[in-house]
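Record format v2
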Amino acid sequence: MSTLVLIEHDNRTLSPISLNVLSAAKQIGKPITALVAGAGCADVANQVAKIADVDLVLLADSVAYEHQVAENVSKLLLEQIDPDNKGADVARFSNLLAASTTTGKNVLPRVAALLGVNQLSDVMSIESEGRFKRAIYAGNAIATVESCDAVKVMTVRGTAFDAISAEGGSAQIEQVSSVHSSGDIEFIEESLAVSERPELTAATTVVSGGRGLANGENFNMLYSLADKLGAAVGASRAAVDAGFVPNDMQVGQTGKMVAPELYIAVGISGAIQHLAGMKDSKVIVAINKDEEAPIFQVADYGVVGDLFELVPEIEKQI
Amino acid sequence: MKILVAVKRVIDYNVKVRVKADQSNVDLNNVKMALNPFCEIAVEEAVRLKEQGVATEVVVVSIGSKSCQEQLRNALALGCDRAIQVESEDGPDSLSVARILAKVAESEEPGLILLGKQAIDSDNNQTGQMLAALLDRPQATFASEIKVEDGKALVTREIDGGLQTLRLTLPAVVTTDLRLNEPRFASLPNIMKAKRKPLEVKLADDLGVNVSSNLKLISVEEPAQRQAGIKVSSVDELVEKLRNEAKVIA
């Protein structure tokens, strides 16, 4: 058994979700090799080398990998797994893992197809060497699936695995010099929301707003509460579709999956779609004026009332 | 330019999913089925590109038993020109689907292949990427905007934390996200017209694709249910509970 993990980062810092993916990797099979592909990303490789459970770091540093373009990164991964193109049966790794983020979801199926194996998406539990659990039907059912592919390729749901320690190791860093650069794809631009608040999927507290907020301006109330709690701010699909806030704030099956210590749902009715994205939170608080709202069926603490009075009051008291 | 759109027949998104008593799978007996919502967005985008004069023909393809012809007719009613059903057992795995679609693409030679980013039943989010890899063509997943000009597609993608724009040389594979467009409803005259549009049936075997899978579904269970908690009557009480009972705030 040996596992290759595609590390997620922004060329400077290791993304926290990689520590959750490495935790899954540790359950599946050591030794663990971590691939850092990017441009000017040596710092990230150094951070990864310090993780106790990582046995070897591969660093592929090239402009071709700067934006994690799937065409290039998939071929780099394929080359690591099956260098002589002899097929999955004699591959150098028995498992390939990445986070179930837009990067992991974009890249990994390409690798699986090139290896001629299937992929397991959004794995939430490892039952045995070849047996895994994953959510289907928007989290309304949990499937146990068995794979007898020679290389198990999977994206991992970060919130389902506890992060491992980022310290205690001193793995060797090996440079990968090959560059795969497709001429058919060109990166134009990226506009990423800049926020002082923690990243949604990594935050220990999340405050989310729904249609009940009535407009985008009223989200300021949530930002203010979130800053006091050191929380990230999310939103329901209804709030995103209504244009109150940008898409990347959406929590739910078609948005981000979160599982913080504390989730505060403000003016969110609790559509199945939304619940699928947050019901694994440890403590859920719901604030809604409709006492019949389905969100109260999953909330540990519910307050029925006017959110415009309740939210400022909560902020005052904490 | 020809556009190929791949669609999947799935449980209607409004239907509450039930797990069978023997936990062998989800119960799909007598359940309303529909076009996968993300596929519907792909169909709409293809039809719009044709209306803009960018595409000349839109071919829709689905893989499954005869029942998926219903969704193909639906796509024809929405504006696709002709349909291909690749007859196979229902629910082949993503790799088999991608291999079949690659064969269809090789014979149809589309300039653009549009798919939904994922099906709402298996939630895999794989087929488009696998297809692009098998064809060795560029991809843009999770598209929220597509512009086609001079043999290239400029695609804005929804990624974690924001948006990314890529320029792809056609032929290319694009998978659609929710906010790419709002699909239209099929009008009655178009539904009638769709019945006379060509629908060709092919066999997966004839395409040289073996759909046997290395993935086996062992069981399906209901997710763990959360117990409803309590309602508190005031903010004072809420903050007290969060601080002393749940211990999640300082």
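The longest strand of chain B covers residues 139-149.
Chain B touches chain A through 75 residues (CB under 8 Å).
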